[in-house]
């Protein structure tokens, strides 16, 4: 066989970071390495070689579990031989690799990566199958001493191994120093019992102990120790591992920090945690902790308090001990917001009862995993045990049978041991439900199998008889349906990140939905709604609340059909009785453990989620405040509402979607600006302190232990710099900061460093902490004579990097560098061990710690446009304002001075790229081309396939950018000379490194994986088992579905939903939709040939959803009727919804995703009590409202109209004989005027849309220009609304354009406190005119129906002798060109064989006005079209106003 041509990569430097490289290998080889050195065995190197050149290495010879030097040398030898055989000359430093040299490993892995990308031929290769489904075991790198200590982790600097004498801990040291003992951190440390800290003695041994004994800190602690007596038994060593924790050690080690918690909890709501059954060495018992949200660290913090005796003691002993613990530590019990206990149900109830005596407002939450398991058990007990008995019998047969049936192997697997001779259906839905579904799937096959068994096998015969029982199978069918929601919830709960606040919010919402789901299965809708709100168990038991036997949710019609076919109607009644008991027990169990109503849970999730804050209304916040007892008086409720509105206004200033941040970071930044006495602040802290539903007891306990242990280790590492100069004060060199580290068990642990507190003896100082706590006796910066320290060099501090195990020193910044650090580290030149200075000044470096250095490619906000690409340029003057960047925009070369908050890095391509602007704005298209061209040059990426064709090159560029900029990733286009600075986890840190403020803001952002979806994958993925087209976003292929597509079967993700909402009703100059009907995107579309249809479909949707070649095939069909006009043409995965006309109305009616309380309903007024109507019309136009009211026969007492257009006023005055009172500008109307003119019965209006419509590229939005006039309507609406107790009917209606931004629409909904309805006048007139209507008119949501007087077709509106070319025309606006059906399209009318415009009288009838309605004051054609283009459609307004005839007097 001819050998493949191998291309040897050039020596171009690969700028991949360590983290990116590890992730790249993990994705390619399906491994799970954490660091470069984990791959030191050579096994992954061999498999990469096997993937590049198949067969070059025999994978059966590779030692995948290599740990020793010989095995590693064997693997690297295989790699070297394979390279040599294929003519590749690459020197492999085997000895250095075996010794664990980091640089050698890193360079080889980068070379192999480049070797792979150069020679990859996209051949199919299954790495797991190639290594026979075995895992490559990470190598355990031994502890090594290196020059510079911390440079082992550097990517660019050489390391050199040195030898040094080692001093592991020995018992001999205790003879000299009785306080020296073995440390929990291993033999490298020694534990000082006097100071209760660990010392690093591995390098200096006794010399370090001697040095420590002479420190002022040790001497002072020794005096205290001798005065009060030893805290611990000298014979008892500290625990050797985190898994072995003694109660005595926990109390002495962790409990010593409780005093810091007391002042915090005086002002911060907190949660009491009681974890039962924690391992405490040879003992086990409950552990008490408190948790609260720490504003400074933006995270939920846990603090150990005490360990208690086992639950098996006297009744109520644990509960009493919990209360005693809180009192002992003097905790402020009024701030207990919630309690979390995973003890037994009896103990948990006792704890809650005792704590409620201290604070009756406590919310009790338990372990949701245990709750769902308990609910499952409660429900199963109410059913017949036949299903469980059948499962046990089948398993017993399987384990005892010599020959294994394939179907049974599918059920139970092939590994059967002596210990698994009996099946344990251990009350767990996660294991029970899959078994039920599998058995149902092969039911017929199992019957055939047991029929074929030996006739003498009585057990097989018994199983066969059980499976023939219709009730047994019907019960299985019911369980498959009934347990599916519970199983899905438990499965999602397991996959959630422990303690992640975003996941917690989602979990709480889903728990509420789970309860609603089961309640709806057997309760009537009204009873189900009442139960989810009140949680009254009597509702579950009441027969009148249950659904009828015919509507009862038994598992679908299939169960009843099966029982009827099996002639087992009697069984059906029995089964329904069991099912009802099942639902009552399961639902009641869930409700018992969810004390908060579904409404409150939904309100909590919406308020805490930064992305949904605009949807929250004041009544929801008020409900939260009163439900959680944060507000105890009407004054506090009023204060809460006022502060909430201030927060919304402050956060809602930017109409654009904010950058996605975690709830913790968002609220930490908000809470820092709120007063400690703020009610809203207390509410948010209460919500943030609520326990996470999926907390693991041992992990939280171990986390707090690790925090203490790591603090001790840091103290040991920096103690030599922290010796005190006098006995007057004690200090610690570590500063208050947080970082993440990883313990030996792989558990991610938040490590909290010690906080510097300088205390003057016999002198008190008070200051307010971040959470509002007053710290007593603490020296603060600038106080107690420390003013001189304000400009001094900050103290030395030790920083622990995320995932790192060493302390590292900072890299210097190149003297020629023209940019700052990408992270928020302070820019530092060379440092000396004795002195740290800033040498020289970089004119182009931004040093405010806000990121976005010079040369960074960014997205920025430009008024009136979507996110625009640009590049950060040097500031023109000597120094820039804090948080400001000078940005040059691609496309037009303009400059802006932008705040960093309005910038995003170019890595957010998929989030910021706007398909609409790309398709419609040539300058935006050029800007995208320019920035991707620059990014590709930095990444050394070429697009030779384009062969000079710019359009083809641009398409390849977009594919590369949307795919994550592979293979280099976003790190590849970092500014020149930035690679050495961008990954702080790989850099080193000196002991003299100055502190960086908010150091961790940008650390993880650069390493966040970009999740991309490929629309083209829908065709293949939909064929996978369990997948259907409804699971995919039809626009981008995402599986994260937000809503169902309103027109076709499928879904829309959150981003595409917003795009769809904004562009579905956008039309080009040719009269057709601007974008594809399916995805609202597409660069190449095919138009419907039906003269009355304006739909178009893009090439991608046709090729992917219908079938390959469809687009080219349809181009030859003339005329072609689209899938909306002829649904029978739909095929493949493109299927039109039968009820699409209803779905699209619902979609636009509810697409704001906001829930509002229904408007007040006014009862109809009897005819003899009705009175004439009084109307205030804002932005009245040509008096459409007055015309409709008169046509409907209303008696109008007074009609006051605000209008500033002289032509419109003239029409209204002439046509209605001066009966309308005009008041000019709406902004001049005051409360006094309303009192004089009113009271009004109806308020109507539609503010100008020119600054809201997306058609206007220079639109200013809702808060600028004419968009602000909406707030005049809102102002007057607020003044006119009747007060409580006033039963006078009051109605209002607000109208505006559909094609506005989602943010503007959401803001309007939020102010008007309702969602709009969408009405397109095309159903009752010959012209398209889609508009949103907000209001409280009765029956607004009813279907729009035509009347006999409506002229629906264009021909009906024309004068004699004129012929309509179209049945429907496009939207008529104020522009004369809108009459054409397209920019260069035909005119809609022919006369004498020639095309002609619509006459003014014809336009009037298209809108529903009488002929010559606007023929006043010698107005010309352009003037008449202008006033008509701004008016309402008469039939639509008649449809909306008609129900008012039940309230007001008519003629």
Which strand order do you get reading across the main beta sheet?
24-23-22-25-26-28-27
Counting H and I runs of at least 4 residues, what is the number of helices? 50
- Average pLDDT number: 75
- What is the helix content? 25-40%
Structural class: alpha+beta
Distance between the termini: 99 Å
What can you tell me about this protein's structure?
This protein is of the alpha+beta class. Helix content is 37%, strand content 10%. It contains 50 helices and 31 strands. The chain has a 7-stranded mixed beta sheet, sandwiched between helices.
List the helices and strands and how they pair.
Layout: H1 18-29, H2 43-52, H3 69-85, H4 94-98, H5 102-119, H6 127-130, H7 173-176, E1 180-182, E2 189-192, E3 197-200, H8 206-213, H9 216-228, H10 247-253, H11 258-267, E4 270-280, E5 283-294, E6 299-307, H12 317-328, E7 336-341, H13 345-358, E8 363-365, H14 368-381, H15 386-400, H16 406-412, H17 429-441, H18 443-452, H19 458-468, H20 470-482, H21 484-495, H22 501-522, H23 525-534, H24 537-541, H25 557-565, H26 569-593, H27 598-608, H28 618-627, H29 634-651, H30 663-671, H31 679-688, H32 697-718, E9 738-742, E10 748-752, E11 766-768, E12 774-776, E13 857-860, E14 868-873, E15 884-889, E16 895-899, E17 903-905, H33 909-912, H34 915-920, H35 922-938, H36 950-962, H37 979-982, H38 1018-1021, E18 1041-1044, E19 1051-1053, H39 1054-1063, E20 1085-1087, E21 1096-1098, H40 1099-1106, H41 1110-1115, H42 1140-1150, E22 1173-1178, H43 1184-1191, E23 1196-1202, H44 1206-1215, E24 1221-1222, H45 1231-1237, E25 1242-1245, H46 1270-1280, E26 1291-1297, H47 1302-1312, E27 1317-1320, E28 1330-1335, E29 1363-1364, E30 1389-1391, E31 1394-1396, H48 1400-1407, H49 1421-1429, ...
Parallel strand pairs: 4-7, 7-8, 22-23, 22-25, 23-24, 25-26
Antiparallel strand pairs: 1-2, 2-3, 4-5, 5-6, 9-10, 11-12, 13-14, 13-17, 14-15, 15-16, 18-19, 20-21, 26-28, 27-28, 29-30, 30-31
